[in-house]
Automatic annotation (TrEMBL), chain A:
Belongs to the thiamine pyrophosphokinase family. It is an enzyme of class 2 (transferase). The keyword Magnesium does not apply. InterPro entries: Thi_PPkinase (IPR006282), Thiamin_pyrophosphokinase_euk (IPR016966), Thiamin_PyroPKinase_B1-bd (IPR007373), TPK_B1-bd_sf (IPR036371), TPK_catalytic (IPR007371), TPK_catalytic_sf (IPR036759). Keywords: ATP-binding, Kinase, Nucleotide-binding, Transferase. It comes from Aegilops tauschii subsp. strangulata. PANTHER family: THIAMIN PYROPHOSPHOKINASE (PTHR13622), THIAMINE PYROPHOSPHOKINASE 2 (PTHR13622:SF6). It is found in: Cytoplasm, Cytosol. GO terms for cellular component: cytosol. This is thiamine diphosphokinase.
TrEMBL record, chain B:
One of its GO terms (molecular function) is kinase activity. CDD domains: TPK (cd07995). The keyword Magnesium does not apply. One of its GO terms (cellular component) is cytosol. This is Thiamine pyrophosphokinase. Keywords: ATP-binding, Cytoplasm, Kinase, Nucleotide-binding, Transferase. It is found in: Cytoplasm, Cytosol. It comes from Aegilops tauschii subsp. strangulata (Goatgrass).
């Protein structure tokens, strides 16, 4: 399933063919365009609508961000038995306006029972809810070596990791004190256990 | 001599310079490049000032200090600025603190007087890029809560509002706004109050009167108290807010990050 959040449709329309040298826009049609529609260009909306994309206009709902609306929509369209296997990859959530970035990170917390990965050219981030012991498999052909773990929502009094160059052992982490940045993955598998929800980040290798 | 209230230091980190970098650099009291930030000034300033000869731009926009662990600055860039008199402060032996932390410590150690509350440090290249770098840079704001450190990008700026004070933020509307936000990074806030925003935080009361007819006429008077003072990740955070006045006031029981967009 491919969903464009509002102006995300402009980005697909303008940039996909530049990146693939493929002038055929018909190959990159989102199933759904969702959001408050204040950024999507009218001709882009018309094009995708004519190609069969469902245009889901949620402009009446100003309470939630476009990403929030998209996640809700995906969740709604996923049968219960498939929810546990579902993973949502998001591009364009990081960088840009800081309040947008914070709101997008908040969506990870609000939908903490879903696997949502925010991606940029440089890195990815995921939430590690405190309710679980996490095993993170590192795809070292594309991920790493730089990584980090952050207690953005609330401090951690006890976090333990394996598989990192500088592992944490029952360590306290808090903004204003110690957080794990510029760490290095030292193994194909990293484990994390904590008493606080943590954000995990790992760098992406430059594949060009 | 006392530093003027408008005096500030500029720190350049290792990311593309924002378009207003030359303007900020011109009026700074001290200019520090953190390691690869020197590459960015070397390459980027001439690009931002295409009408001028490269060497003229480079000698005019010469850092006072290049500081950090020196694993990113290109040897020829380091040599170029060293020949122009830039101090090279190699701290490759210290791997425990980030480059920004080292620069802030350097600026505070070298600023006159014991009162650091007038010190203002503007940082370019701290947001975007690798997320762990961005988090490390935000943590520097928390580690130095008594110093005004502003992280800037092409799109916005952020700084810390420590919980110890009520903050009165002056909005320079010609360059800032209208989009803004308040984000409780690191700890939830149980009580935040603001004025000057389109959607202010704080307790508010609404009155509602409804009439119901069953057997007799009944009047119900209801008082709703809505409390939107709590902020946390997983709950409410203030994003896509709008500055409605020239002065925004914020009081909170926890440290908040203030962010405002920059006009193009």
């Amino acid at each position: 399933m491919r969903i464009c959040a509002d102006g995300g449709a402009n980005r697909i329309f303008d940039e996909m063919s530049q990146m693939t040298n493929d002038l055929d826009r018909n190959r990159y049609i989102p199933e759904i365009v969702e959001g408050d529609m204040d950024s999507i260009r009218p001709e882009v909306k018309r094009f995708y609508s004519s190609q069969g994309s469902k245009i889901s206009d949620k402009s009446h709902n100003q309470e939630t961000t476009d990403l929030h609306k998209c996640i809700s929509s995906i969740r709604h369209r996923t049968p219960d038995h498939e929810k546990a296997n579902l993973c949502v990859l998001v591009t364009g959530a990081l960088g840009g306006r800081f309040d947008h970035e914070a709101a997008n990170i908040n969506v990870l917390y609000v939908f903490s029972d879903m696997r949502i990965v925010l991606l940029s050219d440089d890195c990815l981030i995921q939430l590690l809810p405190k309710t679980h012991h996490h095993e993170i498999y590192i795809e070292s052909s594309v991920e790493g070596p730089h990584c980090g773990i952050f207690p953005i929502g609330a401090p951690s009094t006890s976090t333990t990791t394996t598989g990192l160059k500088w592992n944490l052992s029952d360590a306290e982490m808090r903004f204003g004190s110690m957080i794990s940045t510029s760490n290095i993955v030292d193994s194909d598998k990293v484990t994390v256990q904590s008493d606080a929800d943590l954000l995990w980040t790992i760098s992406l290798r430059n594949l060009t | 001599p006392a530093a003027s209230a408008d005096a500030y230091a500029v720190v350049v980190l290792n990311q593309r310079l924002p378009r207003f970098a030359p303007l900020l650099w011109d009026r700074a009291q001290v200019r520090v490049c953190a390691d690869g930030g020197a590459n960015r000034v070397f390459d980027g300033m001439p690009e931002l000032l295409p009408g001028h000869a490269r060497d003229d731009v480079r000698s005019r926009y010469k850092p006072d200090v290049i500081k950090g662990d020196m694993d990113s600055v290109r040897p020829e860039v380091k040599e170029y600025y060293s020949n122009l008199g830039t101090k090279i402060a190699d701290q490759s032996h210290d791997q425990d603190t980030t480059d920004l932390h080292k620069c802030v410590a350097f600026i505070t150690d070298n600023s006159p007087g014991s009162d650091k509350s007038n010190l203002c440090i503007l940082v370019l290249g701290a947001l975007g890029g690798r997320f762990d770098h961005e988090m490390g840079n935000i943590n520097v704001l928390h580690l130095f809560p008594n110093i005004k450190i502003v992280l800037l990008s092409d799109d916005c700026l952020i700084f810390l509002l420590p919980r110890t004070h009520t903050h009165s933020i002056h909005i320079e509307r010609s360059v800032e706004g209208p989009h803004c936000g308040l984000i409780p990074v690191g700890t939830p806030s149980t009580s935040t109050t603001t004025t000057g925003l389109r959607w202010n935080l704080g307790k508010c009361f609404t009155w509602s009167i409804s009439c119901g007819v069953i057997q007799q006429q009944l009047m119900f008077q209801c008082i709703f108290s809505s409390d939107n003072t709590h902020m946390s990740f997983g709950g409410l955070i203030s994003t896509s807010n709008i500055v409605d006045e020239d002065q925004v006031m914020v009081t909170s029981d926890s440290d908040l990050i203030w962010t405002i967009s920059l006009r193009h």
